[in-house]
Write a structure and sequence with these properties.
Elements: E1 3-7, E2 10-12, E3 18-25, E4 34-39, E5 46-51, E6 58-60, E7 68-73, E8 78-83, E9 92-100, E10 103-106, E11 110-114
Parallel strand pairs: 2-11
Antiparallel strand pairs: 1-3, 3-8, 4-5, 4-9, 5-6, 7-8, 9-10, 9-11
Length: 116
Amino acid sequence: QVQLVESGGGLVQPGGSLRLSCAASGFALSNIYASWYRQTPEKERELVARISPSGLSTDYADSVKGRFTISRDSAKNTLYLQMSSLKPDDTAIYFCRASAAFGAIRGPGTQVRVSS
């Protein structure tokens, strides 16, 4: 079954850290574009971070630059988003997306809440 499943979300205090994981099954996450997005009811979906097929290039939203890091472990077929110095504005549902040869696929998402 082709799918992406996110994990690692939760409640964290401002200034804290979380690492999100996105496990792929049924296809390889390596050598394709993969991204993290986030969305809240009040805001449009936002591209948070993207990694190139080679892994040599990454892009980040201005709002997360210097705080978030996207990475990929091809052996584990998993995409990660390391988040640090979290702010209340980072509260959202985070989901991963991959641009595979058969088309784009996204996961159901994981909730991140930043609150004291």
